[in-house]
């Protein structure tokens, strides 16, 4: 999977110190209370694991994309990012390219890279988290911008035998979109900036 931009990540570990107090007083006899509590306690149900997103399934277009508005722009940008993961997992760049303007260098480079990955027999595609998405209307019904904050987890690219061929550390990125509405959305350009700290 194409690296967005390398960034340095500083990890801050926070330790919790638990202290205990002791006294000379003998503890009260709680064996009866503990026995009663054990008899009446019911086991907690095990948490159900969240379903894993299948990145080989084409993402669904949000309904908000049908509207040339700030919300529509944010929805279209979010959909475009979900296509980013899908095309690296499958090599299918058709919808990505359909939405990409000839002026969008990031769009064209990413599509070419995803196609090269697929042609070599490798595969990638780790689900990303869109932390926030905001749209802005510049010219009513025509020109828009959108900003997404995206969390990309560490990714592993594997070959056809399942051998690891590349890893990336992931990170948090701000994506700035310039977009046009002409009956549907066209991505004119994308700028990507790493978020060093929040």
Automatic annotation (TrEMBL):
Chain segments carrying region Disordered: 25-67
Q: Check the record and name the InterPro entries matching this protein.
A: DUF6318
Any idea where the DUF6318 domain is?
A: 57-188
Q: Which Pfam families match?
A: DUF6318
What domain of life is recorded for the organism? Bacteria
Q: Which PROSITE patterns does the record match to this protein?
A: PROKAR_LIPOPROTEIN
- Compositionally biased tracts (Low complexity): 28-43
Protein name listed in UniProt: DUF6318 domain-containing protein
């Amino acid at each position: 999977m194409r690296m967005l931009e390398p960034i340095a990540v500083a990890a801050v570990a926070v330790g919790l110190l638990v202290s205990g107090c002791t006294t000379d007083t003998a503890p009260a006899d709680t064996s009866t209370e503990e026995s009663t509590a054990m008899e009446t306690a019911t086991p907690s149900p095990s948490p159900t694991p969240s379903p894993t997103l299948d990145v080989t399934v084409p993402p669904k277009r949000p309904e908000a994309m049908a509207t040339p508005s700030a919300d529509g722009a944010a929805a279209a940008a979010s959909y475009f990012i979900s296509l980013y993961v899908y095309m690296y997992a499958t090599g299918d760049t058709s919808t990505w390219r359909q939405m990409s303007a000839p002026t969008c260098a990031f769009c064209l480079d990413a599509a070419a890279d995803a196609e090269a990955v697929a042609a070599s027999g490798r595969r990638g595609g780790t689900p990303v988290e869109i932390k926030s998405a905001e749209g802005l209307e510049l010219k009513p019904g025509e020109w828009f911008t959108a900003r997404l904050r995206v969390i990309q987890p560490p990714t592993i690219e594997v070959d056809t035998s399942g051998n690891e061929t590349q890893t990336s550390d992931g990170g948090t990125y701000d994506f700035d979109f310039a977009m046009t509405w002409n009956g549907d959305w066209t991505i004119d350009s994308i700028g990507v900036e790493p978020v060093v700290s929040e």
